[in-house]
Specification:
Elements lengths: L13 H8 L3 E6 L5 E2 L14 E6 L2 E10 L12 E8 L4 E6 L14 E9 L2 E8 L4
The chain binds zinc ion.
The site of zinc ion (ZN) has 8 residues, from loops.
């Protein structure tokens, strides 16, 4: 299991991290225009409404882009390549995340591949990461 730096929740992000501890992915949605958005903030970036709520989403999405990082990030073991990815959820928001349980090679990471959220322990928290659906 990967280890890494635990998140530092803020008042705006605490609901996201609390849900992740329970293996649930929460994304904010605007009640005024019905659109989802990420990262967490107290107003809608589309229409500026402050009438926003947290919505539990499926965690299904697509791999939009990625970079394979070979440089060790303490305390991750040296030599373990990390796939840093941009995932677009079915709800239309994009998250910067990691792809896990996949070979860190371009041939194993086709763009637009379906992915699904998973949750990895990070200290007292869990970090939403993604797996290729075909690899599950
Ligand atoms: Zn809105």
């Amino acid at each position: 299991m990967a280890t890494g730096i635990p998140p530092t929740p803020t008042p705006e992000t605490a609901p996201f991290w609390d849900a992740a501890k329970e293996d649930r992915l929460l994304i904010q949605r605007c009640r005024a225009c019905s659109r989802h958005y990420f990262y967490p903030r107290p107003f809608c970036p589309h229409c500026a409404s402050a009438d926003v709520e947290w919505d539990e989403v499926s965690g299904e999405g697509r791999l939009m882009s990625y970079v394979i990082n070979y440089r060790p990030v303490p305390p991750i073991d040296a030599g373990a390549a990390q796939i840093i990815a941009l995932v677009e959820l079915d709800e239309g928001v994009r998250l910067l995340t990691n792809i896990v349980d996949a070979a860190p090679e371009p041939d194993a990471l086709p763009l637009d591949a379906p992915v699904r959220v998973a949750f990895e322990p990070r200290g007292d928290f869990k970090l939403p990461v993604f797996r290729l659906v075909d690899a599950q």
